[in-house]
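Materials and Methods. Structural model of Glutamate--tRNA ligase. The 548-residue sequence of Glutamate--tRNA ligase from Peptostreptococcus equinus was retrieved and submitted for structure prediction as follows.
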Amino acid sequence: MSKELAELLFPHIDKTLDYYEELYPQRELGKKSKVTRLGPSPTGFIHLGNLYGALVDERLAHLSDGTMLLRIEDTDDKRKVEGSEELIINSLKFFGIEFDEGVTLDGEVGNYGPYRQSHRKEIYQTSAKFLTEKGYAYPSFISEEEMAALRERQEKEGVNTGYYGKWAEDRNLTIDQIKENLDKDMPWTLRLKSTGDPEIAMKFIDGIRGEITVRQNNLDIVILKANGIPTYHFAHVVDDHFMRITDVVRGEEWLSTLPIHLELFFLMGWRRPNYNHTAHLMKTEDGRKRKLSKRKDPELSLEYYMRDGYFQQAVTEYLLTLMNSNYEEWRMKNPDTDYNEFNFKTKNMSSSGALFDLNKLNDISKDVLVKMSEEEILRFMLEWSDKFDKEVNSLINKYYNELLKLLAIGRTGKKPRKDLINCKQIMEFIGYYFEESFEHRDSLPERVSKEDAIIILEQYLNTYNQDDTNEIWFEKVKEITDSNGFTSNNKEFKKNPDDFKGNITDVSTAIRVAVVGRQQSPDLWSIQQIMGSERVVNRVNKYLNKIK
Ligand code: GLU
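The predicted structure was written out as tokens:
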């Protein structure tokens, strides 16, 4: 009967699995080479979890001379959002992930396509026809209301809910009953006729979790929806088989349905890929750990990092830290080695929740940026601002050569300054430099009165010489300090603070406020050297006018 049923349900399918086996041959790759895929749904939202998974895919593939492909899982029409594919591709590219195969901005690349699930209907239906022929699938006419009623009955009886075993009444339909229903144009779904027994527990090795116990599936889940489109369960099994995927990386939310997937692979007679179920990304809030949430946490969205202009290397470096517990140690031992050389292993990934920490990302960014050249930093800032902030883009272009020098201040030597995190923060950090947006933001230090500031700054203007060396400049500041009731002798100041108005730090801070508008900045003499005499003098005069 099952052959007849298969013909009845899929009269339009004339291909067999053999056809596709030939069309999508085993890949000619090394034995150990891994083929991975990212299978995002085009919902218009791409998040840190996607990037986290994509980086695992990327490392597994490229560390083994394998291939990583992008497959768009667009079987759910209702959730499809225009422009999602571009968003996915561009966002991942921003963070250094580029696919070898699959959907690209210039069309599909590779011999295992189509790479959009919506274009693979025939492959799914051929596979579904095969299952039906084997007697492992049947049409089900049960409506949503009937399913709800069934669930109620099951709850009352205290048994597991779902369509299975004796509850799955459509298993028993005769071919004539099925024909009759089809003739009446009743909508139907194709269900798996499960052969599993949940009493049977199997050992299963997950790439991240190690050995786990999995119970057999017994649910007759829907494999083709009423519109002939497969559910995720069936689609990914068929795709991963025919795309010759060796390693699946996906979120732990799929662990509960893993038994279904194992049964499907088994019944299709296919070898299953290795599964790697990644832990949820968590954050600590009020001392408690919780899952990052799309609704509550803007930092879950990749756009958050793009908009702030985080550097790809920093984000990758941070994710590797999050992904492999031994990464930080390796980085300490190999401070200058490319992260691509780190021996990434899924078995070193945490299975109990990866704790995401923005502060840690910022710290790692500082470490990564301190090793980058100013050219590299500015090049990225130009690219970033071209997309996200045109005003900043023209500022960087206008001041480019000066910024090269400005960013370099204090970044060499034994204890280099680690000030720089991301583009937005860098712009804020050097914001004082641009005449366009310059303002005297900070107030004078507490121990410097307006009257004293006026005297200090007038003397500063009188003695300022752009050609002074740092030493001579500093001597002059000392003189101004000591001749106005402040002291350049810090020891003395500590001993008898009441004998002075303040110390040299107060005086130089007052000067700094006048020149850069802030109480804090990198080395002031160096900044002035880059700014030039005219701008320094103008700014001090402007400040004098402001406080006079
Ligand atoms: N489309 C699925 C998701 O977005 C992919 C899961 C998988 O990688 O298998 O969750």
